[in-house]
Design a protein that fits this description.
Length: about 60
């Protein structure tokens, strides 16, 4: 149980970092092609992290 909470905390921290980078990406006026590729990769990872968090929380722990 402790290791699951630790993993969940790590995933939540990664999600916070992804969201920070997304805000920085949105605030820039000059997006290069490389920026767009990194943005797409972050979106894929964000989806995977959210799915993993949802799976780990289970039906009894999901937030409204």
């Amino acid at each position: 149980m402790w290791t699951q909470r630790k993993k969940l905390k790590q995933l939540e921290e990664e999600l916070i970092a992804i969201n920070l980078f997304e805000r920085l990406h949105e605030s820039r006026n000059h997006n290069l092609e490389a920026d767009q590729q990194v943005h797409a990769a972050r979106q894929i990872r964000k989806t995977a992290v959210l799915a993993e968090i949802e799976r780990m929380r289970g039906p009894s722990q999901r937030r409204a």
